From TrEMBL:
PANTHER family xrefs: ARGININE-BINDING EXTRACELLULAR PROTEIN ARTP, MEMBRANE-BOUND LYTIC MUREIN TRANSGLYCOSYLASE F
Solute-binding protein family 3/N-terminal domain boundaries: 197-425
Transmembrane annotation, as ranges: 165-182
Keyword Signal tagged: yes
Gene3D superfamilies in UniProt: Periplasmic binding protein-like II (3.40.190.10)
Keywords: Membrane, Signal, Transmembrane, Transmembrane helix
Keyword Transmembrane helix in annotation: yes
InterPro entries on file: Solute-binding_3/MltF_N
A matching Pfam family: SBP_bac_3
Protein name in the entry: Substrate-binding periplasmic protein
Length: 431
């Protein structure tokens, strides 16, 4: 290989400058990587061989090699151009597989999104490149005195060979591109179907998501929607317990396929995608009517935002973000669950609960003797509540969930599930 490259780039050409040499050199390496068939690879080109290896051994790659066209694999070019002549074909293939695995910038269906470092060869390659450049440029200087007619004849013959080789490369590229398109045809939900289960990240927030501490069973209308969507996909639902602090991060890390009951906020939209909302959401405040810290006739957050007032909120939720931005003087008490915020209010550890209006409504219905609700004007937040989906999900995959939810909302099925969840909350409180 080294002898062939030397003859093609130095022995046959007269180059006026370094740029011409580099141009001839690059063109020849293109043909070698994409069009030259090697006996040691059973008559395959290096590029096609790597593509075949990626099918039975996908763990060696973090990106699909079939998508690395028409721009050549730079690491592969470096190898064929600069590796010493005593390297074996097996060494060559191992290097190119490792180099392809280190490439990034594309996603591939079914492969891990994490970076798998195969081998760090970049510094080693740079040293080899510098040595080979010096040798090549030195040889070029010795050839400047050769006859122009001989050089012109050699250039013409070589360009004809390169033209044929690049034409073959174009055919291979089209075939490989067709393979890549077919592989990308499998959607996100088809992969979920192949796994046989739909993983739903669930953080407790009645009546959206509830969990029986004794049995571990999940209920709530978003948990029911997860079950029904799993039925559409013909897979089993699996609930993955999490917290509101981690419900977005877990989805980004691929720990579950969708997150339940996420408020559609701009900050979250930079990290994940959303389905259409299943319902509209508003934040309200609940307090003890006999608490002297809360002024009579309070209508806004500013009326209760005074020193000495403590507001309890679930950490990491949309209401946490909203009240934190609005409050200047009151103290915010962040707790991990809705039950703990209610206990804080009942024990007078907190003066106000900040939560979703429907959740607070259920709490005041269960405690009508002493609790009161404040729906602040202007509104603290009004948002849609939806499924959270991976940020890189295709529009066609998002549409699957949207169509499912739109039908449930239009037919009144969501309202029925909300009423069912509310009855469960009231029954648990003895009402």
């Amino acid at each position: 290989m080294n002898r062939m490259i030397r003859e093609a780039t130095l022995a046959r050409f007269y180059c006026d400058n370094d740029d011409q040499l580099r141009t001839y050199f690059d063109n020849f390496v293109v043909a070698c990587n994409f069009a030259r068939r090697l006996k040691t690879l059973s008559g395959l080109t290096p590029y096609v061989y790597i593509c075949q290896i990626s099918t039975p051994e996908p763990d060696r790659f973090i990106v699909s090699p079939v998508r690395q066209i028409p721009r050549l694999n730079a690491y592969g070019i470096i190898w064929f151009t600069h590796f010493p002549g005593h390297a074996t074909a097996a060494d060559t293939v191992a290097f190119m597989l490792g180099a392809a695995a280190m490439r990034s910038g594309f996603s591939f269906s079914g492969f891990s999104s994490g970076v798998k470092k195969v081998v760090d060869v970049s510094a080693w390659c740079r040293q080899i490149i510098e040595v080979r450049k010096k040798n090549a440029l030195g040889g070029m200087a010795e050839l400047r005195g050769r006859g122009a007619a001989t050089c012109a004849n050699g250039r013409k013959q070589m360009m004809m060979k390169l033209t044929r080789a690049l034409a073959i490369s174009a055919v291979v590229a089209v075939a490989v591109a067709g393979t890549a398109t077919a592989q990308e045809g499998q959607g996100y939900w088809q992969e979920v179907q192949a796994s046989g289960k739909l993983r739903c990240g669930a953080a407790v927030a009645p009546p959206y998501v509830m969990r029986d501490p004794a049995t571990g069973e999940y209920s709530g209308f978003f948990a029911d929607l997860c079950r029904e969507f799993a039925g559409v996909l013909e897979v089993e639902p699996e609930f993955v317990d999490t917290t509101w602090d981690n419900i977005v991060a877990g989805l980004q890390a691929g720990k579950w396929d969708m997150s339940l009951a996420l408020n559609r906020t701009p900050v979250r939209a930079m990290a994940v995608q959303f389905s259409v909302p299943a319902m509209e959401y508003q934040i309200s405040l609940v307090y003890n009517k006999d608490n002297p810290k809360i002024p009579a006739g309070a209508t806004s957050v500013a009326d209760v935002d005074v020193a000495g007032v403590t507001m309890a909120v679930m950490s990491g939720t949309a209401q946490d973000k909203a009240i934190s931005a609005a409050v200047k003087n009151a103290t915010i008490l962040r707790l991990p669950s809705a039950d703990e915020t209610r206990l804080a209010l009942q024990s007078r550890r907190a003066d106000v609960i900040v939560d979703a209006s429907d959740t607070n409504l259920l709490f005041t219905q269960a405690n009508p003797d002493w609790s009161a609700t404040l729906n602040p004007e202007p509104a603290l937040a009004k948002q849609g509540v939806a499924f959270g989906l991976p940020l890189n999900l295709r529009a066609s995959d998002v549409a699957v969930v949207d169509i499912f939810l739109e039908e449930k909302v239009a037919t009144g099925a969501v309202d029925a599930l909300i009423a069912k969840a509310a009855d469960e909350v009231l029954a648990a409180s003895g009402q």
